[in-house]
Amino acid sequence: MLTQVFDCSSDGERDEGVEAAASALRRGELAVIPTDTVYGVAADAFNPAAVDALLAAKGRGRDMPVPVLVADTAMLVALVGELPERVAALTEAFWPGGLTLVVEHAPSLAWDLGDAEGTVAVRLPDDDLTRALLRRTGPLAVSSANRSGRPAATTAQDAVEQLGEHAAVVLDDGPRAGSAASTIVDCTGPVPRVLRVGAVPVNRLRDVVPELTD
């Protein structure tokens, strides 16, 4: 596969790259994109073959479903319907940013992200370029752009070395901090539960949802 690499530090190439990535994703191809933490590999969340290609590129099984990135809270509402009160409070307090919420998705959604049993892990990234792409594509299945078991890619070059042969487009927006992974909160039960502690500390979450467990 011929991979197109765009230097997104240039305004003109940035816009061209976002459009090229959006077109590739709509065709069912993969794209390497920056996020607010590390580089990710993205696929159309509603294209099961593309999601399978993402899992295969990473060497990852279906028992680890792919998270989804959204451009705004309205996109989350489209996926799940009316937001539970606790979910709405957490998104208002911590999005965009390093909080991933596991929620039950609408049963009518025609997607297959892995063995997720009716749930999806969703995040709104704090990155202008990522959100610009998401506004063009809708929700994207995105996982860190590395082979399973290897360090996450903090530069586009890192990502290309690991997954470049699988991606149609690479958006290079400079080094990423490789900061703490997102905190994950499961909101599918009667009480929200912390699955992974990361960028958002538990005490800050409890300021919003006091009954949170970990």
Topology:
Elements lengths: L3 E4 L3 H16 L3 E5 L4 E6 L3 H11 L9 E2 L3 H8 L4 H10 L4 E6 L14 E5 L4 H10 L2 E5 L11 H8 L3 E6 L10 E4 L6 E4 L5 H7 L6
Parallel strand pairs: 1-8, 2-8, 4-6, 5-9
Antiparallel strand pairs: 2-3, 3-7, 4-7, 5-6, 9-10
Helix pairs in contact: 1-5
How many helices? The count is 7
Task: Report the portion of residues in β strands.
Answer: 15-25%
The structure class reads alpha/beta
| Fold-level CATH name | DHBP synthase
CATH architecture: Alpha-Beta Complex
CATH C-level: Alpha Beta
The CATH superfamily name is DHBP synthase
DSSP helix fraction: 25-40%
Describe this entry's structure for a reader.
The protein has 214 residues and is an alpha/beta fold. α1 (11-26) runs parallel beside α5 (128-137). A ten-stranded mixed beta sheet has the order 1-8-2-3-7-4-6-5-9-10, sandwiched between helices. It has helices spanning 11-26, 48-58, 73-80, 85-94, 128-137, 156-163, 202-208, and strands spanning 4-7, 30-34, 39-44, 68-69, 99-104, 119-123, 140-144, 167-172, 183-186, 193-196. The longest helix has 16 residues, at 11-26. The chain has one domain (4-208): DHBP synthase (Alpha-Beta Complex), CATH 3.90.870.
Task: Tell me briefly what this model is.
This protein has seven helices and ten strands. The protein has 214 residues and is α/β, with parallel strands linked by helices.
What key phrases describe this protein's structure?
single chain, 214 residues, alpha/beta, DHBP synthase, ten-stranded mixed sheet, 33% helix, 22% strand, globular
